Amino acid sequence: MKLQIQGAASTPGSLFCVDRGSNLSPLPLSNLPQSCGYTIRSTRRDFVLVAPYDGCFVAHEEDSYVLPLRWCGLPVRMSCPVMKPSAPNPPMVTCHSEGMVVKTDWMISAAKIIVKLNDVWEPLLSASAKCGFVIVVLPDGVAISARYAPCLKKRDGLYTLELYGDGETKISCPSLSATEPELTKSPPNYPGPQTEVPSKGILNL
User: Fold this and answer.
1) Rounded to whole angstroms, what are the CA distances from 202 to 199, 205?
2) DSSP-derived secondary structure for 48-70
3) Does the pTM of the predicted model rise above 0.90?
4) Residues whose CB falls within 8 Å of the CB of residue 8, separated by 6 or more in sequence, listed in order
5) 145: domain range?
6) Residues 6 or more apart from 42 whose CB is under 8 A from it?
7) Looking at the 3D structure of the chain, how many domains does it have?
8) If you average pLDDT over residues 87-110, what whole number do you get?
9) Which pLDDT belongs to residue 85?
10) Which residues of 44-75 are buried (b: 16+ CB within 10 A; e: fewer)?
């Protein structure tokens, strides 16, 4: 974190001290060892203090990094929020009748991805040989073509693939078995209309 005070040419860094609490006297920044990682720069226009998050006397309080200081005897605090890593985007999946295609944006090596098969985690690369998975490394992630047979089991009508790379994810696809074509039924043979031919009688005269 960085503290910059403009127009402080007349304020040397020796007037800044680390506030070590009520039991210890303030420690001038100029007396800190180089191993603390602090950078102090004073010019004609401003005074700049740069303190690393893992530097001496930097505390982690809730969601912030805090460095308690004293400037000319007045208590001040340098504070910066903790930058939380953004959650990775969920993978994109396309379901097919024989398998699924999963596209992730994980920017890690495919050798570091593991898959859960029969409740056991194992490397994806070794599982692909026995399961028939195809792995393609793309510039913006990893794509996996996973056949259902023989490794993915159907439960409650769903095939599920569990992966762990840049976070854990679970992808499910419904069973899309090929629809059997409907048989064409021939119409029933109803008896057609019959024409009654009158029988010839014998006329006796």
Assistant:
1) 10, 9
2) EEE--TTSTT-EEETTEEEEEEE
3) no
4) 42, 46, 47
5) 92-174
6) 8, 9, 12, 13, 48
7) 2
8) 90
9) 66
10) eeebbbebeeebebbeeeeeebbbbbbbeeee
Question: What does the longest C-alpha to C-alpha distance in the chain come to?
Answer: 156
195 inside domain: no
What pLDDT score was predicted for residue 158? 93
Q: With residue 155 as reference, give the H or E element that holds it.
A: strand 154-155
6 shares its domain with 47: yes
DSSP string of 77-111? EEEEE--PPPPPPPPEEEE-SSEEEEEE---S-GG
CB contact at 8 A, 99 and 147: yes
Q: Is residue 181 part of a domain?
A: no
Q: Nearest to residue 105, comparing CAs of 82, 139, 80?
A: 139
Give start and end residues of each alpha helix (H) in the chain.
124-131
Q: Identify the three-state secondary structure at position 34.
A: helix
Confidence band of 98 (pLDDT split at 50, 70, 90): very high
Tell me: do 35 and 66 sit in the same domain. Answer: yes
